[in-house]
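Lab meeting prep.
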Amino acid sequence: MRYAIEEVELEGGEARVVVPQGAAGVAVLLRRNGAPVSFILRKAPVGVQLGLVELRGAEIEAGRVSVDAPEKDLEEAGVSLPRVSLAICTKGQRLRQLRECLESICQHAPQLFQAPNEVLLVENCPIKPSLACLESTYPGLHHVWEPVPGLSVARNRAMREARGEIIAYLDDDVVLDRGWLVGLVRAFRASDQAAGFSGPIFPRRLDTPAQIWLAYRGGFNHDCSPHRWVRCAPGLPWTWPCGEACFGAGANMAFRREALIEMGGFDESLGAGTPSLGGEDLEIFYRVLAHGWMWVYEPRMAVFHEDRAELADLRHQIRGWGRGYASYLLKYLSSPNPDWPRFFWVFCKTLFRKFAGVPGTVLGLRKYPWPVVLAWEELRGFVEAVAWAYWAARLRRRFNGRTRVGLLRAMGERATLERLNRRSEASRAVQRR
C-alpha cells in the first residue's frame, strides 16, 4: 500500500495525473508559478487519470488562490538577504536524513553557507559527539555540541550561538523546497511586527500505511493558504489562541533572533528529550502573539518531511503529540494568565474530544482513515501529561535537565566540549576573513 507523490504546475496547461503501477492512490502538490497552492490525497485504481475536477470537485481551491508573479531567486529579484542563522538540532542517529537535509540546503539555499549567514549543526547527546567531521564536508557548517539532553535545550543553545538577524530551525529529517529561502525572506518582509515565521510541511514519501494515515490526518501542516496571525486575528479557529496546529510546526520555523531572546527562548521543560515529549513549538508560537508580535505563515516556505514508516514509531509520535499539547496547556493552567479561561475551555473540550475519539474511530465516524490504536495513543498521551509527565518535566527542568549520570558525563567531557568550541570559533574567524 503506497501513494505516488506528484507535483503539478497549474500555469502549464490542463493538469492531469495518472495513478502509476503499484500505487493505491496519489498525493498531488499543486503549484502556481512555483508556489504551493494545494495538497490533495486521492485513493484511485492504477491507470486512472485524474483532472482538477476529479481531485477537488466543483470548487477547486487552487483556482481561487492567486500568486502574483513567478518565483524568482533573490539575486534576480534584487532583494537583499537578511543575515540568517539556520540551526539543525540532531541527536546524530539519522545520518542519512541529515546528509539529505544538508544537501538540500546546498542545492536550494547555498547562500546560507556563506558569511555573514551560517548553518549551525547542534548535536544534542550526553556522550562524545560524532558529527564534527561534517564541518570539512560542508564548508560554512559550524558544529556545536550540547551535552544536556532535550530539544528545547539544543534550540536555546543555537539561539545563543547564532549571529544572524533571523534564526531558522529545521528538523534533521526534512529537505527544503526550492522556494524555501524566497518564502522566508517574503515572510520576514511582511511586517516590522512579524517575529515568527513558518510554512507547510509535506510528506516526502507515502510508502507505508503509517505514512498514509498521518497524511490523511493532516500531517504536520499541509495548509497552503498564507496567514498573518496577530493577537486579535479574524477567522479564528476554536482553539485560539492556544491552537494545536494552525501556526505550523517546529520542524520548519524561524524567528527574529532579538524577539526570541526577549521572550527567553524555548521552555526547556517541554519538547523531545523530556517527559512531556513535545509542545515546545506550540508554546513559543503562543508567546510570540502574547508579546504583541505577528506570526506569518508563508506557503512558499515549504519543506518535505520523512514521516514515520512503521506503526510502532507512529504510535510513539502520536502519543508524544498528545502529551506535548496537554503539557503546553497545563503550563498556562497552573499559573495566572490573562487567557486562563480560554485555556481551560480548550483543555476541557480537547480532553472530551480525545475520549470521544476512541469510540468514534471504532464506529467509523472520522472523516479520514485512522486506526483505533492511534486514537488510543492520542488519548493516552494527553492523560499521561495530566497524570505525571508535565509535572515530571517541570521537576527535571528545576535541576537543569541534568541527572546524576548526565552531570558526570558532562563534567567528564568538558575538555572535549571546550576544544570543539575553540575549533568552531577558529572556523568562524576563517569564514569572516
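Slide two material, second protein:
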Amino acid sequence: MTSRISALTELDPLSVPLPHGTEVTLRVERLLNGRRVPQGLVGRVVRARDGGFDVLVTGVGELWYARTELAPRRAGQLEYAHRREAAWQSLFPCRVLEATVGSRAWGLSDETSDTDVRGAFALPFSWTGGLAEPPTELISADGSSTYWELRKLVDQALRADPNTFELLFVPSVHALDELGQWVLDARQAFVSKLLFGSFGRYALSQLNKLSASQRLAEHRDVVLGWLEEEPAPSLEEVGRRLAAVSPRSAPTQADGEHQARLYLKQLYRSLWDQGLLPSNDFKGLTEYARSGGRRPPDARSLRPKNAYNLLRLIELARGWLATGTPVFEATGEFRERLLAIKRGERSLDDVLAEAEAMSPSLEAARDASTLPEQPDFEKADALLKRIANELARRHVLHVPGPWSG
C-alpha cells in the first residue's frame, strides 16, 4: 500500500486534467456576493470554461477557478485522470471513425447545445501484448468526445447498442482510415430485430429515470422543510411523516415507513450526484436543508432532458424495424413535439402518455419487420480478424503512421 501511494508523488496534482464531475479542493479564497468562500472547501467540476473550470460548491453555488487554484480531492481521482489523459494523448491519432451525434444529429439542437462526438480507434499491434490491459475507450477531459476500441465497438454493435448504432449509421459518420471504412462497409451485418429489445431497454431506462425524478420531486421540498425544524427530526421520524402523506399504498404501516426511508435514500443520493450535499447520507441531506443553500428546480418546472429522448428512441426503432433504414433526424410535427418537451412546454405526464401510445406501433413494426432475427456473427468475426491482420502487417512492415510502432 505504501509503495502504491508513494508512486503517486510522481504525478503533479496541478498538471493533470479535471474531467467533468471530479471532486476538487479549493486552493484559494473567493468572494461571492459578499460571502467568503474559504480555501479548503470541496467542490465538483461542472464544466471547463475560459481556460479554467466552473466548480459547484455545496451551499454556495458555482464559481470559476483557474486550473492552478484547484487540486483533485482523492489520490485515486488523480491517478485515473492521469491514466485517461495519457491514453487520450497516445491513442487519439489512432482514430478510424468519427461522427457528430446527439441533438445536433437529431435536428434538435439550438445555440446552447454542445457538440458531442463519438468514434472508434484501433489499438496498435504493440499494445495488444504484455501484462498491461490496454484502454477500451478514450474520453476527452470535458466528456464531449468518446471513442471506443474496435473490438469493443463490434461487441456493442452485436448487442444492437443504441449509442453504437448511432455512431455507425448517423449521416455524419466518416472513416478516418481504411480500417474505419471496412467497419462501415460491414455495418449492416450488425442490424437485426434485436434492436427492438435493445432500443426498448434503453427507452425503458429513460422512462425509469423520468419516473424516479418525478417521485423524488413529489415530496422533496416537504422533506427539506421538515429538516429545517428545531430540533431537526431523525430519519425514522421523517420516514413516519412521509409514510403518512405519501399516496403510495403499502400492505402495512411498517411497509409504508420502509418505502419512505428508501425514498429518502434515493433523495439524498440524487442530490449528492448533483454535487449539492456535503456527504452522501441523511446527515448530509439535513445539513443541506439547514444551510440555506441553492435548491434544485421546483418539482413543477422539472423537465429532465431524457424526456424527449424517450420518444425519439421509440420512433427511431419503429421506423428502422418497419423500413430497414434508420432516420435519426426528427422532422415535421414530431420534431415540433420534441422541441416543445425540450422547452418545458409539455408536462411529464403528457410525455409518458405519448410514449405509451407509441408502444403498439413499435411492436407491430417488429412483428412485420424483414430484418433478420440475429446479427451476422460470421461477418463480424471476419471483420475483426481482417483488422487484426492489417494492424499486424503495419507493425511488422513499419508502415508510416500511428499503428507501426
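Talking points for slide two:
Residues 82-190+375-396 form a domain with the Beta Polymerase; domain 2 fold (CATH 3.30.460).
The mean pLDDT is 84.
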